[in-house]
Structures are given as C-alpha cells and as structure tokens.
Amino acid sequence: MTIYAIDSEMDVQTRIDKYLWAIRVFKTRSEATDACKGGRVKVNGESAKPSKTVKPGDVVTVRKNVVTYTYRVLQPAEKRMGAGLVPDYAEDLTPRSELDKLKAPVETFFVRRDRGSGRPTKKDRRELDELMDLL
C-alpha cells in the first residue's frame, strides 16, 4: 500500500476571476475577467490577470467606479455562494473613506432657457462657464 503526501498548498488556491465572482464582487464571471484584463484588480499590490491564483492571506483590491474595495482572502471559493456565507471566505478591509464616496451628493442644476430663444450667445456661454466654475 502506497501513501502519497498531498500538497495542501495546491488544494487551497483558486483563480482570481472565479473567486471575485464567487464572493459576489461581480455579478458575472465575465465581468470579473474583464476587470482583471482592464487592470482594475490587484493581488498583493500587483496587477492580476484572470488566471492569477489566490490563496488564504492574499489581499485583493478591486476598483469599481470611484470606489476601491479591499478584501483579504480567508479561503478560496470555486462556486458562487449566498451573501450570508461571504464573510467565511473574504474579510472586507475597505476603508470607511472609500465607502463614503458612494454616498457623496451629486450636484445637479438646471439652467432654464425660454423656448424658441435659440442657441446661447457667446455672452450666455461665458456666463454658463462661470457658473460651472463656481460649482
């Protein structure tokens, strides 16, 4: 009878695109793959290709829109899971200042022009530009 030693390091790795999809950072695996290809995903500070493997202890940063999310890999995941199970697989290290960017007020205003008044004149354009600079 032969006993083989199992390298536990190989068993606890998974692809970064599959992992980000499994812990619900992206809705689809193809979105996760595109984010990796676009340079918006880093593992331990280095850009990650979709095939990059992650293991427990790795720190993953993901830039989505204006926010940069940070996660620590607790265990690799191959299959998508319910939101309640995610804390068992990933620790959210995202700073509060990054999450506050999601709640930033969006300044909107509307400049009313009378119907039929035509295109703005050069003077009107300058006044609009000055108004925009004040905001």
How would you describe this structure to a colleague?
There is one protein chain. This protein has 135 residues and is of the alpha+beta class. 28% of the residues lie in helices and 19% in strands. The protein contains five helices and seven strands. The protein has helices at 8-11, 16-22, 29-37, 96-100, 122-134, and strands spanning 14-15, 41-43, 46-47, 53-54, 59-64, 67-73, 90-92. The strands form two sheets. Strands 3-2-5-6-7 form a five-stranded antiparallel beta sheet.
The CATH topology is Structural Genomics Hypothetical 15.5 Kd Protein In mrcA-pckA Intergenic Region, Chain A
The main sheet orders its strands as 3-2-5-6-7
Fourth-level CATH superfamily: RNA-binding S4 domain
Helix content: 25-40%
Mean pLDDT: 86
Describe this protein with a few key phrases:
single chain; 135 residues; alpha+beta; five-stranded antiparallel sheet; two-stranded antiparallel sheet; elongated
Task: Walk me through the topology.
Elements: H1 8-11, E1 14-15, H2 16-22, H3 29-37, E2 41-43, E3 46-47, E4 53-54, E5 59-64, E6 67-73, E7 90-92, H4 96-100, H5 122-134
Antiparallel strand pairs: 1-4, 2-3, 2-5, 5-6, 6-7
